[in-house]
Structures are given as C-alpha cells and as structure tokens.
C-alpha cells in the first residue's frame, strides 16, 4: 500500500494505530449497494412491493428514497440482473451510491421545498444530483452547468430519462460563472476531485496517490468555490462536496477562500463520511451561508 498515503492519513486523522488499521482494512471491503427511487415516476411503496418478486433484500438508509440492496454472495450477478429488470429499464429507480445522494439532502435539510428558487448545479454531469434537486425543489428553476462538453450527452440523457422538468443545461467554465454576480438562491458544487473513492472499486489505483496531484486539483476547486461564492445571493446557502477524504481538497479549500474574503460566509454543517463508520464510500460535505458580497475583479479572458 502507498506509504505516503498511510503517512498522510495517520498524521491528519488517525493518531491511534488501531483506528488506522480499521480504516485501512475497510478500503478493500465490499460496501452495500444502494438504489434511489425516481418519485417522478413511481411511489416508493409501490416500487418496493414490485421489487419483492425479484427477492431483493432492501432496507432504508438515512437518505430519503434511497435503499440498501443487501449484498448476496454472488453480487456481480445480482447487480447485473437488477439493471435488466423492467423497473430499471423504465427508470423507476437507478443504482446510486449512498454518498452520491448526500449533497442534495444536506443542501435541502432533508425537506421538500416548494418555493420558487433559481438553483445552480455547477458541475452537474452525469445528472443524478440535478434530478435529485428537481425532486426536492419541484417549483424551482435549475441551471445544470457542466464544464466538459464531452459529458453533456450523458447529462441530457439522464435528465430526460428521469422526467426532470424546469432544468436548463449550460456548458460554461468557472470564469463565466464568476460574472453572474449574486444571481442564484442556492448553489450545489459537487467539485471535480482526485477521486479517492475509486479505491473501493480498484484498490490498486491507490499506488498513484500523491500530494502533488491533490494540491493541483485543490487549486481548481478553490477557483470554483470563489466563482460559486460570487454567484450566490447574500443571505442564501450553497453546498460544497467532494468524494475525497484529504483535508487539502476540503477544509483547506474552504479556509483559503474564507481567508481571501473574511467574514463572507459561515459554515452551517460539515461532515466527513468514513467507510468503516458510515458504511459508505468516503465523502465530504459543507453547507455554508453567504453573509456579504465578495469584492474580487476577475480580468482574465473568458472562455465560453
């Protein structure tokens, strides 16, 4: 295992050798799969009743309309069969990791809000969080922005499959978003990150982990955060999340922005999900409230 990775996590998170050992042993263990029910097409009660005929063992999670699929011995075959059920082909549900549904829950405070908001999903592909925003804010207009044009086809397809309405697709970079000063009522930024979560699918990829790459990605995340902060209205909230555990892409990004713009926002909620504690892939969420305008003049050329 990557010694630099172990050293970093020991220094920053696990002072106890036993706690570190428990954490490291969780990296190559299988975690339960979860499904999220598409309430635009079917109610949870009806779908759960229909899935009983396939003998799937489903149990609720802490997330609304998200259920564990109990792991059977031959789970690869189980997942394959699940993907070919009529209910899946009709998009009554889709297979989504528990952590991936957490961002919207923390932004919405687990409540459906029928107020008319203008919401920005800043890095939206493949669209699962976009469709979830539409579920929790049914009367809002959602701008689904994706920086990479190569990823927009998948985003469009998933929005259409989930019957999501009131969604407008854009493809702007962070430099353009910065110009939309105090435009949005709520913003979700599930930021591009170093993908530490992929180790649960390919533990061998851990050997490529290094602080140089992490810091490079954190520089981009910081620019996105600043752009995002400027585009949010004063007094409103946004949520920043990554699928990484290191502090550089999480707390450090937030602290660096706050250092540039003192007292510009306050942290309402912050949580780090651990595989050996929360039974899900690792994930980090921070919900903040903007307290005042940020004074920053971006003068570089804008690329559309």
Automatic annotation (TrEMBL):
The keyword Translocase does not apply. The active site is at residue 243. Residues 23-304 form the SAM-dependent MTase RsmB/NOP-type domain. Keywords: Methyltransferase, RNA-binding, S-adenosyl-L-methionine, Transferase. It comes from the Bacteria. S-adenosyl-L-methionine binds at residues 146, 190. GO terms for molecular function: RNA binding; RNA methyltransferase activity. One of its GO terms (biological process) is RNA methylation. The keyword Ligase does not apply. Belongs to the class I-like SAM-binding methyltransferase superfamily. RsmB/NOP family. This is rRNA (Cytosine-C(5)-)-methyltransferase RsmF. It comes from uncultured bacterium (gcode 4). The lineage of its organism: Bacteria, environmental samples.
């Amino acid at each position: 295992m990557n010694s630099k990775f172990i050293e970093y996590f020991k220094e920053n998170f696990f002072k106890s050798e036993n706690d570190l050992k428990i954490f490291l042993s969780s990296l190559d263990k299988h975690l339960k799969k979860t499904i999220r029910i598409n309430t635009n097409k079917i109610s949870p009660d009806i779908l759960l009743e229909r899935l009983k005929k396939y003998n799937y063992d489903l149990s609720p999670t802490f997330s609304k309309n998200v259920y564990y699929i109990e792991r059977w011995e031959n789970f690869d075959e189980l997942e394959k069969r699940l993907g070919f059920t009529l209910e899946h082909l009709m998009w009554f549900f889709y297979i989504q990791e528990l952590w991936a549904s957490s961002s919207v829950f923390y932004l919405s405070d687990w409540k459906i809000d029928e107020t008319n908001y203008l919401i920005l999903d800043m890095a939206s592909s493949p669209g699962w969080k976009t469709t979830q925003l539409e579920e929790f804010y049914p009367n809002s207009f959602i701008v689904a922005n994706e920086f990479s044009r190569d990823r927009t086809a998948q985003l469009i397809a998933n929005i259409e499959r989930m019957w999501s309405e009131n969604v407008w697709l854009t493809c702007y970079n962070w430099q353009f978003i910065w110009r939309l000063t105090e435009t949005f009522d709520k913003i979700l930024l599930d930021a591009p990150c170093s993908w530490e979560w992929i180790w649960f699918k390919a533990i061998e990829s851990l050997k490529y982990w290094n602080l140089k790459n992490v810091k490079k990605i954190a520089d981009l995340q910081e620019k996105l955060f600043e752009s995002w902060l400027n585009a949010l209205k004063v007094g409103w909230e946004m949520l920043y999340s990554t699928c990484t555990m290191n502090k550089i892409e999480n707390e450090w990004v937030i602290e660096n922005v706050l250092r540039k713009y003192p007292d510009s926002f306050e942290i309402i909620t912050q949580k780090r999900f651990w595989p050996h504690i929360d039974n899900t892939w690792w994930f980090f969420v921070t919900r903040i409230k903007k307290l005042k305008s940020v004074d920053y003049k971006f003068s570089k050329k804008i690329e559309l």
